[in-house]
Amino acid sequence: MKDAAPMVYVVDDDPSVRRAIKRLIESIGLRVELFGSAQEFMSGKTRPDVPSCLVVDIRLPGISGLDFQQELTKACIHIPIIFITAHGDVPMTVRAMKAGAVEFLTKPFRDQDLLDAIQLGLERDRARRQQEAEIAVLEERFESLTQREREVITMVVAGNLNKQIAAEIGTTENTVKVHRSRAMDKMQAQSLADLVRMAERLQIPGRT
Question: What pLDDT, in 10s, does the model give residues 74-108?
């Protein structure tokens, strides 16, 4: 992954609020982009591939902040969101947090509360990106296996013994051992426990 500066996106229809938040965020050395609506963000230019988070006003022209949250989920855009509002209520807060919001801040809020929420959001995004990168490496290793090797390790992580696997696929135990050894080498698994952990991350068994 590229080691570039994180980005914070601010979506608020009040220009003065946008500018104030921008100055605050830039004061701790983060990059900021401003948008006046959800539609403007969604139709904007390609976003840099860096850890990011969104600061979003609940009440926006067109698509509301909560609906914007749903639209991002549908579009598989997994940027952590911090909601800000002058008109929040308990049901609104609960809905936002259940849908994965990092924080729900009521105006006027302390600058430090927003900065803390932004740092938490960026940490969440870093963790997600790291996890996705690790999964991508495992996916690449898994794709390098032959069909038989995939079949064998799927049965191995399901708890089957070599002799059971041999009987199931119609071969010898020694052949199973060879397939198993080659598969573990390709997956770079140091032990059976290591292979099981990899399989869980790749949602094996059940995958071919």
Answer: 988 999 999 998 876 777 788 888 888 999 998 88
3 state DSSP class of 90:
helix
Q: Is the pLDDT confidence value at 1 over 50?
A: no
Query: Which domain, by its residues, includes 192?
Result: 144-201
| CA–CA dist 174, 152 (Å, integer) | 12
Query: Where is the domain boundary, 137, 160, 192?
Result: 137
Domains identified in the chain, total number: 2
Q: Round to whole Å and give the CA distance between 79 and 69.
A: 9
pLDDT bucket at 207, cuts 50 / 70 / 90: low
Measured from the Cβ of residue 14, the count of other Cβ atoms closer than 10 Å reads: 13
Kindly report the pTM of this predicted structure. 0.80
186 and 170 together in one domain: yes
Helix (H, G, I), strand (E, B) or coil at 125: helix
End position of a domain, from candidates 106, 137, 168: 137
